[in-house]
């Protein structure tokens, strides 16, 4: 664990997650001390990713960072890419290419590359491992064959189905939804029971296919993830995805994976200890989705809102709850982001200029107590299902309180407060290696700032050179237009990036 995680993690509160399986908030305990084996359902790469996808993967990126950088876990984070699917085939058919299999590969390759470019733009860390369905065909076939040998699967008309009734005779598996629920897209007359789901699909005419003992076909939706997750990580600590994957996908994954591994390996434990799901992202009350044609692509939204603003928007909502996406929520996120960025610039400027102008021991003491209260509150929030909304609001309140009396607080204490906020922002992914986007441009801005301060001082000492003040104002305005704000305090000036 990190120093802070070790120090605070030994006392209550303990880290807890809402588990979609048990529908309760449980203490987070991994199978191997200090290690998290986490499998996340990645995208089906047939089109551009939208803001709903951004919400899911940024949220998991934040949780991953909190687990590793705050609580000190070693996180092994595996993601799958579904690169063969009905939607990919449909998109490939639209290309009107003679070789459909090649067209499917082109579609999947193009949109997978675009997806990871979007994730990089959002500051989402690359997975530890990326696995693709088309690279696992042989292992998927072997997985299905073993289920059939165990009596959990049966062949019908060239397709293979999972026998859910047989499974329930041997396993008492938690379910995410009611027992009578069914995925309507998989109704087939040859199934023994309406809730049975397909493991291997009989090939249709003119679509990609793979040879098998049951005839040509391709994997079902759920079997891909089980095969890749078990091959990569084995038994899991965390499995995650959007809430729309809870049923049927994750419930079916759980059943076939536990049947495959058997009680000999699992005992009375579950294949994955935790399932966590992000909530829907709504636009005007409706879920953002491609089928409703109410989606905004990640690339389009990044033209009007920066990646930090978008990340802040998601941080300000509980990741497991539905959220409304719109202009007002974006503007609020931008205001919080700017408020914190301005405060960090203030702390940095005070670090260069030295002591406060009116240091007050009482104000400094109050600031120290407020920092401790905030640290405790943020720790409690992160222990409570990684409640980033509460954590960010506490940081924002700390900024508001300290900013009003910054000139009265000891510089070392102000630097300590700024350092804590900067660390939490870095953990949340709001700051990169260049400290919130400040690169070589900052050096130029500081030189100009210093020059401007010297000119102002010269003008005050050698009146009536009022033209020099005018020059200073012109420089300040030019820098503002270039993206920098200069603030004057007594005989000194500080610079920050305009957010």
Automatic annotation (TrEMBL):
One of its GO terms (biological process) is cysteinyl-tRNA aminoacylation. Keywords: Aminoacyl-tRNA synthetase, ATP-binding, Ligase, Metal-binding, Nucleotide-binding, Protein biosynthesis, Zinc. Its EC number is 6.1.1.16. It is an enzyme of class 6 (ligase). GO terms for cellular component: cytoplasm. The keyword Ribosomal protein does not apply. Residues 30-334 form the tRNA synthetases class I catalytic domain. It catalyses: S-disulfanyl-L-cysteine + tRNA(Cys) + ATP = (S)-disulfanyl-L-cysteinyl-tRNA(Cys) + AMP + diphosphate; S-sulfanyl-L-cysteine + L-cysteine = S-disulfanyl-L-cysteine + L-alanine; S-sulfanyl-L-cysteine + tRNA(Cys) + ATP = (S)-sulfanyl-L-cysteinyl-tRNA(Cys) + AMP + diphosphate; 2 L-cysteine = S-sulfanyl-L-cysteine + L-alanine. GO terms for molecular function: ATP binding; cysteine-tRNA ligase activity; metal ion binding. Its cofactor is Zn(2+). InterPro entries: Cys-tRNA-ligase, Cys-tRNA/MSH_ligase, Rossmann-like_a/b/a_fold, tRNA-synt_1_cat_dom, tRNAsynth_Ia_anticodon-bd. SUPFAM superfamilies: Anticodon-binding domain of a subclass of class I aminoacyl-tRNA synthetases, Nucleotidylyl transferase. The keyword Lipoprotein does not apply. NCBIfam families: cysS. Belongs to the class-I aminoacyl-tRNA synthetase family. Mitochondrial cysteine-specific aminoacyl-tRNA synthetase that catalyzes the ATP-dependent ligation of cysteine to tRNA(Cys). In addition to its role as an aminoacyl-tRNA synthetase, has also cysteine persulfide synthase activity. Produces reactive persulfide species such as cysteine persulfide (CysSSH) from substrate cysteine and mediate direct incorporation of CysSSH into proteins during translations, resulting in protein persulfides and polysulfides. CysSSHs behave as potent antioxidants and cellular protectants. This is cysteine--tRNA ligase.
């Amino acid at each position: 664990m990190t120093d802070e995680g070790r120090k605070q993690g030994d006392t209550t509160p303990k880290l807890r997650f809402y588990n979609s399986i048990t529908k309760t908030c449980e203490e987070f305990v991994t199978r191997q001390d200090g290690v998290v084996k986490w499998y996340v359902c990645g995208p089906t790469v047939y089109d551009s990713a939208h803001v709903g996808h951004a919400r899911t993967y940024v949220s998991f990126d934040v949780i991953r960072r909190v687990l590793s950088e705050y609580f000190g876990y070693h996180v092994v984070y595996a993601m799958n890419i579904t690169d063969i699917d009905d939607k990919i085939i449909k998109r490939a058919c639209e290309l009107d290419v003679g070789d459909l299999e090649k067209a499917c590969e082109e579609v999947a390759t193009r949109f997978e590359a675009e997806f990871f470019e979007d994730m990089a733009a959002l500051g989402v860390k690359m997975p530890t491992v990326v696995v693709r369905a088309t690279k696992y065909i042989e292992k998927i076939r072997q997985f299905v064959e073993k289920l059939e040998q165990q009596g959990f699967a049966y062949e019908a008309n060239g397709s293979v189905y999972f026998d859910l009734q047989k499974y329930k005779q041997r396993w008492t598996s938690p379910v995410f939804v009611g027992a009578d629920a069914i995925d309507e897209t998989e109704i087939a007359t040859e199934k023994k029971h309406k809730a049975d789901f397909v493991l291997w699909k009989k090939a249709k005419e003119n679509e990609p296919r793979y040879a098998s003992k049951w005839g040509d076909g391709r994997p079902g939706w759920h079997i891909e993830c089980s095969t890749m997750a078990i091959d990569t990580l084995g038994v899991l600590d965390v499995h995650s995805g959007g809430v729309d994957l809870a049923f049927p996908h994750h419930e079916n994954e759980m059943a076939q994976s536990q049947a495959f591994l058997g009680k000999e390996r699992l005992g009375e434990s579950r294949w994955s200890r935790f399932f966590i799901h992000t909530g829907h992202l709504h636009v005007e009350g409706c879920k953002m989705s491609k089928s409703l044609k109410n989606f905004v692509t990640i690339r389009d939204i990044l033209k009007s809102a920066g990646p930090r603003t978008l990340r802040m928007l998601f941080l300000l909502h509980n990741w497991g709850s539905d959220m409304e996406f719109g202009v007002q929520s974006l503007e609020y996120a931008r205001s919080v982001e700017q408020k914190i960025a301005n405060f960090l610039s203030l702390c940095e400027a005070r670090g260069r200029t030295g002591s406060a102008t009116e240091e007050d021991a009482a104000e400094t003491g109050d600031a120290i107590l407020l920092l401790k209260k905030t640290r405790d509150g943020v720790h409690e929030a992160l222990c409570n299902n990684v409640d980033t909304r509460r954590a960010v609001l506490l940081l924002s309140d700390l900024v508001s309180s300290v900013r009003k009396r910054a000139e009265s607080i000891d510089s070392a204490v102000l630097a300590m407060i700024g350092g804590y906020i900067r660390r939490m922002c870095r953990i949340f992914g709001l700051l990169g290696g260049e400290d919130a986007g400040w690169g070589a441009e900052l050096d130029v801005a500081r030189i100009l700032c210093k020059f401007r301060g010297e000119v102002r001082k010269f003008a005050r000492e050698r009146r009536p050179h009022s033209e020099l003040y005018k020059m200073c104002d012109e420089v300040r305005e030019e820098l503002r237009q270039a993206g920098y704000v200069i603030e004057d305090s007594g005989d000194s000036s500080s610079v920050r990036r305009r957010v």
